[in-house]
Every structure is written in structure tokens, then in C-alpha cells.
Design brief:
Chain lengths: 282, 432
Amino acid sequence: MSSKKILPGREASVIASHIGQLTWRGIGIFIILFSALLTGAVLLNNSTRFLEKNLVLVDKEPLFLPIYLSGVVLSIFIGLLASMRVARELDKGTLELLFYGPVESRQYLSGVAIGYMGIGLASVLVILFWAKLSEMLLNLAPDAKLFGLLLSVFLMICAFLALSLLIAILGGKARNAIAYFVLAVFLLLSFQIGDSLLSTLLLGGSATATDALSLVRKILYSVNEVLRWLSPFQITFEAAQNLNHGAITKYLIGNILLIAETLILMTFAILRLAGKGVRGER
Amino acid sequence: MKRSFLFLLLLLIALSGAVPGYAQNTEERSFVYATNHYTGNGYASALIPPSVDEVFLLSGSPSIIAAKETNLYYWPITNEYKADWESLNLNASGELQIYQGSNLISSVPQSKYTLQYDGNDPAGTYRLFLNEEAETAYQQYLDRRKQYRDDLNQYHQLINAFTILYQDALKKVSEGLLSPDQLPQAPIAPPDLTLFSSEILLGYPVDLPVGDYRMQFRLPDGEVQPGSVKKLKVFEALRVGTGYKVADLERWNQTEDSFSTTETIYCLDGHTYFLRPFSQTEYNQRYFVRMNNPQDKLSREDRQIWVSSKAISSADLQIKSTANTYSAPVEGYYVRQILGTKLGYEIVPSRETEQGPTFEAVRFVADQGRAYSIELTDASGGVLPGSARQIRCTQTSRSPWLYVLSSLPLIIGLAIYLARRAKVQTHKPIEG
């Protein structure tokens, strides 16, 4: 197989560049960035409020959770943008026109992915800038691990982007793609948040006393045992925790998992699009 | 006849409704394991009912596994199986066999043992004695207990004699026959017996390196006791460290715990804090919790738990700030309640009072800058492991600016959008 067949090629870079230009010219990405940073600001402000009332706060890294959640918000919006773009093009039939020309499904999807990954990277750099300014503003302890966390957040955006593209290809029509996308986000986040809440907030009383949430707890725990290897949000959350605890090997494994997931999901999406074609089973 | 029958029937029904309800559940004679296990700070006991299939032990010191027959019952209030030791407590005869994979690595015979500790410092003095040593140690304990009783008895006799003498002497003082400094001195009480000991007990001492094992109980006839096969996990501490309980002067009994060196203690400028250092050890949450409570259902293998062992009362805190470096000792502080109806207290060094300390801590005032590095050193100047922390004085008043920072992308985006719109409007297409 020649390298031309493997690499996305010039067509992909043209698509990526086009996506980048279109996105940065619109107001949408700025609103997304604002939403992500606002989420972070609310969480960080929550910590400072607690400090004011409690007079002392012990925290490993008060910026970790705000940055992580900002990353989740970004992932969802960027994934939605990418998913809608592909689904709309499939819906309108513009992709059919494109594929009659020199562009193949592999080049098209790679171009879209690279374009939105570029937007993700730029957004992560904006979060870094925001985090550093917040650090100075509030006199928080500077921590080099922040860069590690942002790397994981970027990989999370990439992995969720790949999942969103696969959803768009599987959904075919825009409305199907939206429904699948919302369902995926809901399932991934609800199991993760539910498990986190139940395993920390509701741990009280005797460990053997009757537990009203016993079955829910067991289900959430079991599902999360699977999701911790599959969900980009969960993998990134655990990578961040490992980074915080200084478990660098586990942190790196988390990042490798995110890269592998991105590649696998992208490959599935490309193969699926090539297999069913643009008219396909819509 | 019919009436009287009906009356009797009604009476029976009424009486059956008035029978008191018992929460006593049925007992079942069962084979169980019971542990007297090493916890890192001492020894604790636990019951392993048949419903539990894995036993957890901490490496580093021997633990005791006892094989017993008892009456088990289910206690619905806590959802636990409990043993009615009073009705049946038989030590099973045989040997405890421990396998690693399919290899039998140890056949442990039954041993006598006793556990002893000093009540003044249980964590530092817990000792497990086995076989002859156990008998010797227990005998020594009995001798000391007897000696203490004798001393106490003698002391009471002396006190009685002293009371009579003292009354006489007081009378003579009032009559001017004796001066007050000639009053008799009270006898000195014997020191308390702080040594505690269990009786001589029977069990199977297990001291294995970290690993996964399987254990079973083989009866004297060569058969394996039904229900005795269990998984056995021997684990170790993940790390040792130094923790701090941090409290502001204004909320002295509301402490925040700092367990790890990666944590930062955030405080407020100009406030006074008390840092109470303590030794601690980190374990896997499931292993440690299930060792102490084998029927626990909530602990997780993917979590860790810090277990504090004892307060550090003799050390110096080295404080490095942007302005200077200084040292502050751990010392006792006494919380003195202010008299009156209004609530209030003051915290003073206990050496300035006649009272014992309420707590031992380092007093730290956040007035030497905005960032500090701290670590504890012992008497020889060595740094205590895991005692380094950062302290930062946070500028909480600036937190509303976070929202301004977050709005920057929106402001920039709007500026770009409006500039583009203005540009498009100025480049109107030429008509005709």
C-alpha cells in the first residue's frame, strides 16, 4: 500500500482549513468557549466561596475540575458541530457531489476530524491562558501538571469528536444523528456522574446497613467498570486523577487509550462511510 | 355451647394478637473464621461468616486466624451475620493450609497466643505473643496485676491510717501543739496498671508476604472442613506520610485534613491557623476496610484510604516564605472558655496554664507573604516523610473577575463578528 493511500492528503487539509476558517469567522465557537470557561469559573468561584466561609481549604489542584468540565463542555459542542456538519452534508446530498470529484470518504472524514481537532487545540490553548490568568488572579499554587491535564483534555476532545463522526455516519439523517448524539452524551455522562456522586456523597453510616441505593450503586459500578475503558470522559477523568496522585504510568496509559480510541473510531467511521456510500442506507 | 365456643375463639384471636414480637433470629451452628489481625497500629478482631469468600490481611506482622464453630444469626438491623459466642464458642481442631496457586506453601498448626498493650500508647505498644512466650507474657501480666492489687490494697490501708493521723494532727495544730508544716504527708498512690492483656487464646498465626493465596481448614481425619475454603489476600501499605489537621483560630474545632504532599493548603491573609501533624499510612480502600469489616459492601478497589495512626507531638515546622524562613515547634494549646453567657474562647499555650493541652499543634500566622513552603523536622533535623506542603493565601475578593476572564472570548468573538458585518455592509454589490 502506498503512502498516498494511508495519508489523508491535500484534499483533507483543504477541508480542514475550510472548516477552520468557517468556524472562526462565526460567533458560535466563541459562545462555546464562553460557556466552557463560564462552567470553569463557576466551579472555581465555588472553591473560593468555600474558603471564605470555612477559612481554610485543602485542595490538590482547584483548577483540575473546572478545566476538566470546561473540556467536557467543549467536547460536546465540538462533537455536535462536527456531527451535524457531516449529517447535514449527507442529508443535503452535497457529499455525493463531493465524492464524484477527487475526494474520497477517508479524505473527507480525516479533513473534518483534523479541522475540528485544530479548533479543539486552539480552544485548549484558550483554556490554558484562562487557567494561568486565574492562577495569578487568585494566587493559586502553580502546577506543571496543568499541562498534562490539558493534553488529556485535548485527547478527550479528539476521541469524542471521532465518536461524534461515527454517530453521524451511523445516524445518516441529521435528526437521527442528533438523537444518537444526545443519547450517547446522556449515557456516558449520567453513568459517570451518578457513580461519582453515589460513591462519594452518599457514603455514610454503617457500611453494612441497609442501602436504599444498593441496586443502583451496583449497576452504576458495573457499567462504569466497562465505561472506564471506553468513555472518553471517564478515561480523561481517571487520567486526571492519576496525574494528581503522581501515578504517571497510569496517566500515560489513559492518554494512549484515548489516542487508540480516536484511531479506532475514525477507522470505523471511514469504513462505514466507504461501505454504505453517501446514498447508502439513509 | 356454640356461644361459649365462639367466645373462646374470639379470646384466642385476641390473645394471639397480644403476643410480644421478638427480633431474635434463628441461629445456625456454623463453621466460621475469626481474625485477630494486625492493622498497622495494633490488632483488631473480625468475624468471617460463610457468606464472605475472601479474607484480607496486612503484611508486616503476624495475624491470627481462628477456626471456630459457633451459632450464627442474621442481624437485619445492620444486614450482618453475627456470632452468638456465648451460646457456642468451640475451637476447631486441625490445621490451616495455605496454597499459592496449586502449591501448598504452609500448613499452620494451632498455637496459643495472647495480645498485650499499654493503655497509654496502644498503637505503639501492641504485641502478639505466641506459644511459650504467650504463656510467659500472660503469667507476667497476671503477676503484675496481682502486685498492683496488693499495692493498691496496701495503699488503701495507708490512706486509712493517714486519715486518722491527719485528723489528730489537725486537732493538735488547732491546739497549738503542732505547727502546720509538721502535718503528716499523704502516702503516694501506686502507679496505675496500664498494661492490658487478652487471655490465652487459640488460633493459627499467619505471616505471609504480599500476594494472593487460598486457605482451607483440614480436620484431623484428613478431610477438608466444608465451607472453609477462602481466598486470602495479603496486602501492604501503599505509602506512609504525614498529615495535617488545619483549623483557623476562629473555628478551632472545624479542621480540614491534608493527607498528601500534592495538596495545597489555601488560607486567608492575616489569619492565624493551627496545624496539627499526625502520622498516617495509605492503603487500598477495599483491602483495608474489608480486613476490618469483612461484610462491608461499599469499599472500592479503585480507591485509596489514608489511615491516621498517632499525633506528632515532638517536631518543628520549618516555614519558608517569600519574606523569610523560620521555625515553629509543635506545642500544646489550651482552649479556655470565656466566662459569661456570651460564647467565646481563647487559645493559649498550655505551658502558660495549669491545664493539660486541648490539642498539640503548630501556630502559624499568614502574615509573612502570600506563599509558604512547610515541612516538619524531628529532633535530629531530619525531615519527616510526606510532611512537605504549600500554603497559599488566596485572594478571594478577586473571584468575580473570573467571570470577566471567561467573557473575553465572547467579547473578542462579538468584535470579530461585528467588524465582519460592517465590512460586508460597506462592500455592497454594484447594481446594474
